[in-house]
């Protein structure tokens, strides 16, 4: 039996009246929410929470990093990064050490145990990519990625403290 509260919940994809002037923004919100939920389900299979894999990806590619640089590369604030690193350290995937050149800096490095996790994370991301792409053609996938990159660039120019979006394979400054 449908309650009064559930009868007022719009169907997926139906825009609330107040969002009618922002259909793309509403669609981005819905897609991001579902993507994060599915990523969370898949990552739980390997013992991670969403965004922890992004931290590990940076460490696997770059090796030991200052915690502040890691936060910047992942796009997280200092407090969130500290909690994330603490959880990853407790799980045995990272190690924190004080910098010998700057005692104020904390360096984070992947552990040997995290190397086995890498393959699992890559598999999870491949599965997630397959679910996202669904039945889209290669041309549609390329077009979707290009549009998403343009949307990201448009938004990054409006965020005062954001860095320009980095592209996979692009050299860091």
Automatic annotation (TrEMBL):
Record keyword Transcription regulation present: yes
Question: Could you tell me which InterPro entries the record lists for this protein?
Answer: HTH_MarR-typ, MarR/SlyA-like, Tscrpt_reg_MarR-type_CS, WH-like_DNA-bd_sf, WH_DNA-bd_sf
Task: Please provide, alphabetically and separated by semicolons, the GO molecular function terms listed in this UniProt record.
Answer: DNA binding; DNA-binding transcription factor activity
Q: Does the keyword Transcription regulation apply?
A: yes
Keywords on this record?
A: DNA-binding, Transcription, Transcription regulation
Ranges for the HTH marR-type domain? 21-153
**Which Gene Ontology BP terms does the record give?**
response to stress
What name goes with this protein? DNA-binding MarR family transcriptional regulator
């Amino acid at each position: 039996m449908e309650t009064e509260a559930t009868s007022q919940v719009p169907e997926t994809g139906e825009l609330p009246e107040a969002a009618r002037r922002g259909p793309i923004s509403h669609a981005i919100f819905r897609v991001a929410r579902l993507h994060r939920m599915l990523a969370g389900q898949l990552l739980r299979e390997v013992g991670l929470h969403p965004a922890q894999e992004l931290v590990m990806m940076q460490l696997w590619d770059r090796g030991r990093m200052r915690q502040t640089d890691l936060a910047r590369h992942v796009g997280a604030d200092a407090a969130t990064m500290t909690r994330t690193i603490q959880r990853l350290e407790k799980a045995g995937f990272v190690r924190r050490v004080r910098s010998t050149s700057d005692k104020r800096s904390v360096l984070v490095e992947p552990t040997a145990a995290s190397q086995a996790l890498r393959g699992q994370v890559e598999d999870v991301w491949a599965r997630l990519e397959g679910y996202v792409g669904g039945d889209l053609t290669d041309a549609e996938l390329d077009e979707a990625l290009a549009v998403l990159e343009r949307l990201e660039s448009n938004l990054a120019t409006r965020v005062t403290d954001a860095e320009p979006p980095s592209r996979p394979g692009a050299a860091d400054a």
